[in-house]
Amino acid sequence: MCGCLNELPGALSLVSMDLSMRSSSLLSPPTFGLRVLPFPAKLRLQRLKRPIPVKPLIVSSAIGSDKNGFPIIPNQVFMEEAIGAEYGEGFETFRSDGPLKVDVDFLNEKLQEGFLQKIRYAMKPDEAFGLIFSWDNVVADTRDLKLFTWKQLAFEEGQEIPEDSDVHKSLLYAGADHVLLKVLLWEKAKSELDRLKSRLSQLYYENLLKFTKPVEGLEEWLDAVSTARIPCAAASYLDRRNLVEALHQMGLKKYFQAIVSEEDGMESKAHRFLSAAVKLDRKPSKCVVFEDDPRGITAAHNCTMMAVALIGSHPAYELVQADLAVASYSELSVINLRRLFAHKGSTFMDLQKQVIEKSPPKRKLTIDTIF
User: What is the C-alpha radius of gyration for the chain, rounded to an integer number of angstroms?
Assistant: First the structure.
C-alpha cells in the first residue's frame, strides 16, 4: 500500500506533463516552417478610406448595340414571325414546383371570372374585354421607317434599292437573311451577313427614337376605350426599353396597362397574344387583337380571340378572315366590341357537333289505271 502511494506522485507528474503537451498542441498549432509576415500598414489604411464611385461598365454584345449601350437582337426586328398556337401548342412558364405548360384551353379555364367579377361585368360588360395591339402598322406606321432603314444601309454599302413593288414588299415582310441573299443579291452578303444585319437593326432603333406620331386615329380610340375602362396591351418584338420609350414619345404610354416585349421570350405571334391576355387578366376568348397582317389574324383566331384588321398595308381582300375590317380607327366605337361578342357564349370557337337528321324517304307517285 505504501509502495503504491510512493509511485502515485510520479504517475501524476506524467499525467500533468501529458496534459500540458496536449494543451500546448491545441493552442499553438505547428507552423511547418511558414513565417507569418506582418500586414502592411498602408493596406490597412486603404481599407478605411471611402470607396471611390466607379462608373459602371457596359459591355456591348458582338452583334451590335444602340448608342446607349443596350444590346440589339437583329433577328427580332427584320424576320418573318411564326403564327403559332396550333391546337395543343403552348409555351412553358417556370415555377418553384417545376415548369408549367400554358396553352389556350388552360388560360380560358384558369382565367374565368370570379363571382364578384361576374356581377361587375354584368353591370359594366365592356370591362370584361381586353384589347391587344400589335406594333407594326397598328400602333406605329413602320412601313416608311423600314424602307428608309434599308435605303440607309444600301447607301452606306454603296448599293441601291430597286424601285419595285415586289422588292419593297420583301423588304417589309421578309426576313433580313432572305432579303440580303435572295432579293438584293449583294455580293458581300454571304461573308458579312451578321455585320449587315447588326447595322440594319442599329439604324432601325436610331430612327425609331425619332418616331413621334402614331397611326391616325389611334390616340382618340385609346382615349375612348380608356373611358370605358377597357384594359389594353401592346405586343411587339422590340425590347422593352425601346418600346416604352417609343410609346412615351408618341404620348400613348398612359393608355397601356401591359406590355409584351422581346424580353418575355415569346416565340410566335400567338404566344405573344397569350402572354398579353395573362398580363391583362382576361381569358383569351374575351380579347380582341388589332392587326394589319393576315398571319396575325390567323394567330388571334388560333388563340380563340377576335381580330380587327386595319386595311392599309394589306388590301381588304387579304383580310377577309378578320371578324371586322376597318380603314381607320375613326370607324370604331365601343359598341363595335359588344357586337363582336354578340351571340357568343363561353363556348366561343369551340368545336361543335352537328347532328344530321335522316330525311324521310320520298313518296313515290304511282298511277292507278281503272279498267
Answer: 36
Greatest mean pLDDT among 39-43, 48-52, 119-123, 202-206 lies in 202-206
- Where are the alpha helices (H) located in 32-191, listed in sequence order? 41-48, 104-110, 115-123, 143-156, 165-173, 176-178
Give residue for cell 506524467: 14
Largest CA-CA distance found in the chain, in angstroms, rounded? 163
Q: In the 8-state DSSP scheme, what is residue 331?
A: G
First and final C-alpha spacing in the chain: 160
Q: Residue 258: what are its φ and ψ, rounded to 5°?
A: -145, 150
Of the listed ranges 28-37, 97-106, 130-139, 168-177, the one predicted with least confidence: 28-37
Alpha-carbon distance of 104 to 99, in angstroms, equals 17
DSSP-H helix ranges across the chain? 2-27, 41-48, 104-110, 115-123, 143-156, 165-173, 176-178, 193-208, 218-227, 240-249, 269-280, 294-302, 334-340
Residue 84: CB atoms within 10 A of its CB come to: 22
How far is the C-alpha of 247 from the C-alpha of 245, rounded, in Å?
A: 5
pLDDT band at 189 (very low <50, low <70, confident <90, very high): confident
Cell of residue 203, nine digits: 439604324
The beta-carbon contacts of 246-253 under 8 Å, at least 24 apart in sequence, are: 246/140, 246/208, 246/209, 246/211, 247/139, 249/209, 249/211, 249/212, 250/139, 250/140, 250/211, 250/212, 250/213, 250/214, 251/214, 251/219, 252/139, 252/214, 252/218, 252/219, 252/222
Question: Rounded to whole angstroms, how far apart are CA atoms 236 and 208?
Answer: 13
Strand partners, 308: 290, 324
Tell me if 349 sits within 8 A of 305, measured CB to CB: no
Q: In which band, very low, low, confident or very high, does the pLDDT at 257 lie, cut at 50, 70 and 90?
A: very high
Alpha-carbon distance 158 to 345, whole Å? Answer: 59
Q: 280 with 287: CB under 8 angstroms?
A: yes
Contact between residue 296 and residue 136 where contact means Cβ atoms under 8 Å apart: no
112: Cβ–Cβ under 8 A, 6 or more apart, which residues?
Answer: 283
Interval 311-352: pLDDT, tens: 988 899 999 999 999 999 999 988 888 888 875 544 444 444
